[in-house]
Specification:
This protein is an all-alpha fold. The protein has helices spanning about 5-10, 20-30, 35-50, 55-70, 75-95, 95-110, 120-140, 160-165, 175-185, 195-205, 215-220, 240-315, 335. α1 (about 5-10) crosses α3 (about 35-50), α3 runs parallel beside α5 (about 75-95) and α6 runs antiparallel to α7. This is CID domain-containing protein. InterPro entries: CID_dom, ENTH_VHS, RPRD1A/B_C. One of its GO terms (molecular function) is RNA polymerase II complex binding.
Length: about 350
């Protein structure tokens, strides 16, 4: 049984060479009973991989999927929910037309060899196009406002006022947490989380700092002197000032620690929300695929029912018992040669 840390190490050593891809592919096929865990780590490491190594992950997936097609299909099934976001991620992040052509060719191979159903192939092609559009959009945003020779374009005096008016942009509206998550998922899709990990994360959030009643009671019980500087004038001697200073230091430490815990909780909740949204999106894609697959097989069943009805009709027109059929007797030899 292979551990997740071992998988991370293996994927970390992956390169685009054929030997590296085939070696890792054989290793993964050997542990195909853990296909769900392997695919999860694959997707996570793909996102964090450097740009020049991302295509290697698709090479491995392609090799594993094609070999697995003949050995049970666990990887074929488990990779499917991940591939759409992976294709879009690779195409949008890698600025190389040859890599884009390679991704497109792999999708075409899966179609030609009927690795996946036409609806799944259509979804992958759509993800590819979305990745191209996103990359083009990012390139436009990153355009250098120069004339292409490293020098800024000369601004005509007559157009100065017009340019100034263009620069006066409205302040950007602060995005809500939901909008931030949707934007982040569009820019950098995350792998579909393993259900057990997602449940564990949500359970951990149930015991979060924001629900720590003991600390909140301690903070609420702090005397007003630690937060109201106007009361400093009521200090009568140095001892009272020293005691108040110690109290303020204690309150500061308590609040600082609690704030750090709350910030950590907020990050965890953001990540959990992102994982949930990614999981929902993956399930929506899977539902869409399954619905189309169901419709396809319903049509096939309907055709089979029609064929069965035709056979039943044809069977009714056939004689019930061939042995009891009234057939005219054959002529004798004498009758045949009689003149």
């Amino acid at each position: 049984m292979v551990s997740e840390s071992q998988l991370v190490k293996r994927f970390g050593e992956l390169s685009t060479s054929q030997q590296s891809v085939e070696t890792l592919s054989l290793f993964l096929m050997h542990h195909r009973r853990q296909s769900q865990t392997i695919v999860h780590v694959w997707a996570k490491e793909l996102v964090s991989a450097t740009t020049d190594r991302k295509i290697a992950f698709l090479y491995v997936a392609n090799d594993v999927i094609q070999h697995d097609k003949r050995k049970g299909g666990e990887f074929v099934k488990d990779f499917l929910p991940m591939l759409a976001s992976a294709v879009q991620h690779i195409v949008s992040q890698v600025d190389d037309e040859n890599i884009h052509k390679t991704v497109k060719r792999i999708i075409q191979i899966w179609n030609e060899r009927q690795i996946y159903q036409p609806d799944a192939i259509k979804l992958l092609k759509t993800s590819y196009e979305n990745g191209i559009q996103k990359k083009d959009s990012d390139d436009e945003d990153d355009d250098d406002p120069t004339n292409g020779h490293g020098k800024r374009k000369r601004i005509e005096p007559s157009s100065t006022s017009a340019n100034n008016s263009k620069r006066r942009r409205k302040p950007k509206r602060k995005l809500s947490l939901r909008e931030e998550i949707r934007r982040d998922l569009a820019i950098n899709p995350i792998p579909v989380p393993v259900v057990d990990e997602l449940i564990k994360m949500l359970q951990e959030l149930e015991n979060s700092p924001s629900s720590d009643a003991d600390v909140r009671e301690k903070i609420a019980a702090l005397p007003i002197e630690v937060s109201d500087s106007n009361l400093l004038k009521n200090l009568r001697d140095k001892q009272e000032a020293t005691d108040l200073y110690k109290l303020v230091q204690m309150a500061h430490g308590l609040l600082e620690e609690y704030n750090l815990r709350l910030e950590s909780e907020l990050r965890s909740r953001r990540y959990a929300a992102k994982m949930l949204q990614g999981y929902i999106q993956a399930q929506d894609r899977q539902i869409e695929y399954e619905e189309k697959l169901l419709e396809d097989y319903k049509n096939k069943l309907s055709k089979l029912n029609l064929i069965r009805e035709e056979i039943e009709k044809h069977k009714k027109n056939l004689p019930q018992d061939v042995n009891n059929m009234q057939v005219a007797p054959l002529p004798s030899a004498g009758d045949l040669f009689a003149r």
